[in-house]
Design a protein that fits this description.
This protein has about 70 residues and is α+β, with helices and mostly antiparallel strands. Helix content is about 20%, strand content about 45%. The chain is globular, with a radius of gyration of 11 Å. The model has no long low-confidence stretch (mean pLDDT about 90).
Length: about 70
């Protein structure tokens, strides 16, 4: 499995400020929830989880909810 399959991005004001990659979906989903709790309070924060092996398909997005 590709070590950079699942990509997590934190953006504020439409600009990425933090990102990370994980090989497994379960770990990436745990990080996604953790980032919401730890970083979701930033003004204009948007957190997305994408599957890079599926062409960058967005799996989850916050604050808009799951895709």
């Amino acid at each position: 499995m590709d070590n950079q399959r699942y990509h997590l991005t934190l953006s504020t004001g439409g600009k990425p400020v933090m990102h990370g990659w994980w090989p497994g979906l379960a770990m990436a989903e745990r990080k996604y929830l953790r980032w919401i709790g730890e970083r979701g309070g930033r003004a204009g924060a948007r957190i997305t989880l994408t599957d890079e092996a599926a062409g960058g398909r967005v799996l989850k997005a916050w604050p808009d909810g799951d895709c």
